[in-house]
Design a protein that fits this description.
The protein is mostly helical and about 90 residues long. Helix content is about 65%, strand content about 5%. It has helices spanning about 15-30, 35-50, 55-65, 70-80; strands at about 35, 85. Strands 1-2 form a two-stranded antiparallel ribbon. Helix 1 runs antiparallel to helix 2 (about 35-50). It is globular and about 35 Å long. Belongs to the UPF0223 family. InterPro entries: BH2638-like_sf (IPR023324), UPF0223 (IPR007920).
Length: about 90
């Protein structure tokens, strides 16, 4: 991994950790699959930290540009499928 996670200086240390855990779950969904419940829990926490749609889009786009992994596609797949493991191809 040769990129940095997008973080805000306004977030607490715990919020930064929680946002990074969400992005790590997105990475895992692409690399080998992630449990749906884990992804859902981390996304819900992410939404408490980044509640606005515009802010969410901005942070997720920054992450996608840096990593190549799309949080949008991952969350969309999680919402559409009820499988135990979410795998993005």
């Amino acid at each position: 991994m040769e990129y940095q996670y997008p973080i805000s200086m306004d977030w607490s240390t715990q919020e930064v950790i929680d946002v990074i855990q969400f992005f790590e779950a997105v990475e895992k969904a692409y690399e080998k699959g992630v449990e749906r419940e884990v992804l859902l829990e981390r996304y819900r926490r992410f939404k408490k930290i980044v509640p606005g749609k515009a802010d969410e889009r901005n942070v997720c786009n920054q992450f996608e540009e840096a990593s190549g992994y799309s949080p949008y596609r991952t969350v969309k797949k999680m919402k559409e499928e009820q499988s135990h493991v979410i795998k993005v191809r």
